[in-house]
User: What shape does this take?
Amino acid sequence: MTSEKDLKLILSVAVILFLVGVLCFAAFPIESPQIPNRIQYRSATGHALFEHLEHNTGYDVECLECHHHYAEDREDEEQLACGACHPQEPGKATDPEVCSECHDEEYYEDTEMEARTPAVHSQCIECHAGIGAGPLECAECHMM
Amino acid sequence: MSRKKMFIVSHAPFWHNGSNIQERCYGMIWAAMPAVALGIVQYGLPAVGVVCLAIATAILAEYLMNRATKRTVTIADGNAALLGLLFAMLIPATTPWWVVVVGTLLTVVIGLHVFGGLGANPFHPVAVSMMMLTVSWPAFMDFDAALVNYELSFKAVFPLTLAKNLGTAAVADFSTLDLLLGRQIGGIGSTFGLGLIAGGIYLIAKRYIRWEICLSFLASLFLTALAFHLTDPVRFAGPMFHLLTGYTLIGAFFLLPESASSPVNPVPMLIYGAAAGVLTMLIRNIGSYHDGVLLAVLLVNLVNPLLDKIRPKALGRMA
Assistant: This one.
């Protein structure tokens, strides 16, 4: 049995906690860093967690080694994500504005861009096989 | 008939140690504080937001349910606040606000009040809501996905995911000391091993929870993990790893010994805890979930009424 005094006290605490909670969510949202720390590729065959920052700073992989075909004068933070050019599903169009930043329309209008999944696969596997380090087998990246 | 006389039962010997639901709930909240504090230090203000919103929503939901069902308002007993806090301790600091609100409502309304309120719930309310969220929105309950934006000073991959997929070698970086100090990703209040153990010892010392349940759970989990490890040391991680990762410790001290959903006699308590430990390891090592504690809690909650049938023999002879 809650007394009237206790009821008021607990309700006041609840309202204060609610306001603090709302304030934290509104004023301090989780922001993605300009250079991602980690990227998780979600897949029905198991999600793959890519240590993006670790590759960049820990393994000294230059941005342009992966963010290929891109203007070299671009700052590190301004590199485009894989999905900006490589569509998530095969055959789907990519953002023409992204393409036209570097190419004339005639250059890419009949081009079918490689989808993101095969693009990322070949990028990772070729690099790992080339340097003889890093995972090569499916289950080493894709975790159920 | 006056309300007081309704609860007069048979003759002595009975004694009361002076504790009550309120003291027990606030005692459990205090016991959880070290683990929550480390979560807040690691994940910052987003973790504060999740904890505050979950506790507030739980209290307000309990109040509204008390009013709607025309029952005595019980929010001052601390049970709603405790449930909100425990729910917040299990989820990632980046959980969206609406998932926090929905999860807390599921805890209080579906997990608790649908069954009749405190003391009538057959399952731990937080385990019920967590499994509902895990099935409904797995991406939000995936620690690897939820915490991608945090730059942490330790390996930011959920240890049980690594162990399940890549075996013992992949978790060699997680030392026992690291796990005790909370240097692993997980829920806001479920990773700080030392804090949870300290809280658990406090709860056992104050007799808010029964040591039989906690220790039988931890011992059976340890022995089952050891058996798996000895069978195939490459595939199955060792017992200390399983003892200090995932929801093991929070399950042992804060979920399994919940009074309404756990047995009342010592022998059933030992069986209940031991069964939960074995189930947890079976789910972790050969099941499809990375962490089996919540499912194990629900499964042993389910058999709790059967276990309670194991009773000491009554003195004397039947007429």
